Amino acid sequence: MTKQEFEQFNIELEASGQTLRSYMDAKGLPIHRYYYWKKKYTIVDLPEQPSGFIQIGPGEQAKYTMRLEYPNGVVISFQSYPGSKTLLKLVNPKH
Predict the structure, then answer these.
(1) DSSP at 60
(2) Cα angle for residues 81, 61, 67 (degrees, 5° grid)
(3) What's the pLDDT score for residue 60?
(4) pTM score, whole prediction
(5) Which of 25, 54, 55, 71 has most Cβ atoms within 10 angstroms of its Cβ?
(6) Mean pLDDT for the chain?
């Protein structure tokens, strides 16, 4: 399901006046499918918050040097994207 189809699905759900469970049953869809779509399309559209970070994806070249600065003064600079897993481990070592 595309994002536009999911948005239309939500409009139809609201207009039906039914609960989510009864609407999904009427459509012959398991309820977990709705929550999958909701999670998928909600994460993509999080509002941009000024955080000092730039978002880049796999295969994209960073246009800026990435800098990770810890409270104890340690600074790590990247000239290219180190990958999500590496960044996650550096930001939250418990992962």
Answers:
(1) P
(2) 40
(3) 56
(4) 0.44
(5) 25
(6) 79
Torsion of CA 49, 50, 52, 57, to 10 degrees: 40
> Looking at the domain assignment, is residue 92 inside a domain?
yes
Task: Please report the sign of the dihedral spanned by the C-alpha atoms of residue 66, residue 72, residue 51, residue 94.
Answer: positive
Q: What is the pLDDT of residue 46?
A: 47
Would you give the DSSP letter of residue 79?
S
- Which tokens hold the place of 8? 């239309």
Model pLDDT for residues 17-63, shown as the tens digit of each residue = 999 999 999 999 999 999 998 888 876 444 555 566 666 666 655 56
- Does residue 79 lie within any of the structural domains? yes
Report the largest interatomic distance among the alpha carbons of the chain, rounded to a whole angstrom. 58
What single DSSP character describes residue 19?
A: -
What residue spans of the chain are helical by DSSP H? Answer: 3-16, 20-27, 31-44, 84-91
